[in-house]
Amino acid sequence: MEKPYVLGLDMGGTNSVLGIVDARGHVLARTSIKTQEYKEIDKYVDALYNEAMKIIDSVGGIDLIRGIGAGTPNGNYYTGWIDGAMNLPWPRVPFAELMSKKFGVPCKLTNDANAAAMGEMTYGAARGMKNFIMITLGTGVGSGIVIDGKMVYGHDGFAGELGHTCADRSPLARQCNCGKKGCLETYCSANGVARTAKEIISTTTKETMLRKLDVDKITSKDVFDAAEAGDEVAKEIFDYTGTILGRSLADFVAFSAPEAIVLFGGLTKSGHWIMDPVVKALNDNVLPLWRDKVKVMFSDLKESDAAVLGASALAWE
Amino acid sequence: MEKPYVLGLDMGGTNSVLGIVDARGHVLARTSIKTQEYKEIDKYVDALYNEAMKIIDSVGGIDLIRGIGAGTPNGNYYTGWIDGAMNLPWPRVPFAELMSKKFGVPCKLTNDANAAAMGEMTYGAARGMKNFIMITLGTGVGSGIVIDGKMVYGHDGFAGELGHTCADRSPLARQCNCGKKGCLETYCSANGVARTAKEIISTTTKETMLRKLDVDKITSKDVFDAAEAGDEVAKEIFDYTGTILGRSLADFVAFSAPEAIVLFGGLTKSGHWIMDPVVKALNDNVLPLWRDKVKVMFSDLKESDAAVLGASALAWE
What are the tens digits of pLDDT across the range B165-178? Predict the structure, then answer.
């Protein structure tokens, strides 16, 4: 009998979420552990195993599990290693091998943004699409690229770092954590939006309800609430952010000519405030042949499920 | 018996070059016609046929020809149409179908930069590579992208327009023929180099032997000759051009994580004058994980053969 289920793992810097997924993309059971509680990788894998076995047993036992798919920070599809993940207690470990040995089933690995793109392709807004780009707008900006129906991993497994393409080559470009200047993620992540809000508040005298907040703690949610209430500065922040993102998307379109760009993550909750300037800037900056032809859409997966679903999709391969 | 030869066509705005190619990439015979002499597509195809039959007969006749591969301006691999080629007398025609009917063998089409990349992958510097990006530095800047051993055509067949990604988002960015501003090709094509030379000569008082030339007729060859003779302004022009190209290449690396970038076309004749600043800017602008890891190389195909070879490679598919 074909084994009917897979185990998906979404490993974040804070939580590690596990889910049992069937072939139609239903999450039958889920559980989680705290990632940072385990300073040694073996202890972490043991804890994952113990927790996973509870939900695995609830669906009929390990014999029904075809494999494990994991989305992790800096997960490398080719090598199965986590490689250079500075936000984890074990930045460099052969994770797929460790999991596979512990569970006795095959384990495949990819990075978290690729996992989200896999989820989108298999179960979400990009179902049936062979060419699309997924942009994750979270704390940082990540990306997963699908060409001709396949995830792009590149020569070394690290393809799709679009958050670190250059959005601003001027001397005033923002400093990125990666060491470079002007990276897209310094403008279009949740942190980027907060940075823009802080800049406008501290360098202009424009009237805005955002001034009432602690300038170091403004979130994209605060900016959204202000925009909804008619605040002009909040709208300006989204216009600025969306314009920068749309311009960069135009360059991505020139690379792989995708059918669609799928936006995912916290910032998408700002709806049309972010979507409108993105679409305008994209169409203002693509070659005429692509004008008004490339779809821009929000992910339609529940954010809590997308990464687990995407990771689990790897295990069906 | 397997048919041992294919016919390759490199259609340029000026010349259309035909070659008979064997499976090892030897051009057994070649000929050409003047593209612009035929104002109607049927007359052009007739002329190609008459000319091609001479070399086809010289190798044993049409029964030995497996198919035709054509690289053309704006050639679309999916549809077989030339679509929007403003430098041809027939900007929109179903070229593959017309050729296939006339010759009685299958014809496949792609754009000229993709053809060059196919040639490089099949017979040139990128032989054996599964992930590379070919950048053609000619009158304009073109590109052909190979991922996982396959040409990237994208959703609509027009992927790989990297010459029209944005190299400069400042208000002073150069105007491109495509209608956009700041496109890479306004800086890094042969025309771009000439434009840079003209700018430096007309806006500075720097001493340079380039001043002795007609400022509207300076070519990249003139700049190369001056650099070789020790001219500091000529070196500055290559540094400027190469730095802009290298920065953009860094963004392309973040997209598809290629093993190598292959540079092709007239500007590569400037050798280390262009290569050195390209490599420096690339490594200054990639994420640390790619620093000094992505090869940058010049094409090692004869320029006269590369496009014919690349186009012909399509016919083996």
Answer: 999 999 999 999 89
Instruction: Give the span between the Cα atoms of B71 and A248, in whole angstroms.
Output: 29
What is the average pLDDT across A180-207? 95
pLDDT at B268 over 90: yes
**Which residue from A154, A156, A123 is spatially nearest to A264, judged by alpha carbons?**
A123
Chain A interface mutation, best of B255, B259, B289, highest count of A Cβ atoms under 10 Å: B255
pLDDT band at A1 (very low <50, low <70, confident <90, very high): low
H-helix segments, chain B: 41-59, 95-103, 112-123, 185-188, 190-203, 220-228, 232-256, 272-285, 303-316
Contact across the interface for A251 and B250, Cβ inside 8 Å: no
Contact B162 A254 (CB under 8 A): yes
Confidence of residue A112 (pLDDT cuts 50, 70, 90): confident
Q: pLDDT of A13-30, one tens digit each?
A: 889 999 999 988 899 999
The phi, psi pair for A34, rounded to 5°, reads -85, 120
Which among B14, B17, B34, B1 is positioned nearest to B312, based on CA atoms? B17
Buried b (16+ CB within 10 A) or exposed e, A215-239: eeebebebbbebbeeebebbbbbbb
Q: How much is the ipTM here?
A: 0.93
- Closest-CA residue of A relative to B170 is A170
A265 near A303, Cβ under 8 Å? yes
B108 shares contact with chain A (CB less than 8 Å): no
Establish if A113 touches chain B: CB-CB under 8 angstroms: no
**Does the beta-carbon distance from B148 to A150 stay under 8 Å?**
yes
Query: Which chain B positions have a beta carbon within 8 Å of A82's beta carbon?
Result: none
DSSP state of B272: H
Contact between A234 and A194 under an 8 Å Cβ cutoff? The reply is no
C-beta separation of B6 from B69 below 8 A: yes
- Residues A4/A21, Cβ–Cβ less than 8 Å: no
pLDDT of residue B238: 98
Per this entry, what is the length of chain A?
Answer: 317
Q: Estimate to the nearest angstrom the gap between the alpha carbon of A119 and the chain centroid.
A: 11
Q: Provide DSSP, A225-280.
A: HHHHTT-HHHHHHHHHHHHHHHHHHHHHHHHH--SEEEEESGGGGGTHHHHHHHHH
What integer pLDDT is reported at residue B87 of this predicted model?
A: 82
Please state the pTM of the whole predicted model: 0.93
Q: Looking at chain B, which residue has its C-alpha nearest residue A156?
A: B257
pLDDT tens digits, A144-185: 999 999 999 999 999 999 999 999 999 999 999 899 999 999
How many helices and strands (H and E) does chain A possess?
9, 12
Burial of residue B127, with CB atoms counted within 10 A of its CB: 0-12 exposed, 13-18 middle, 19 or more buried? exposed
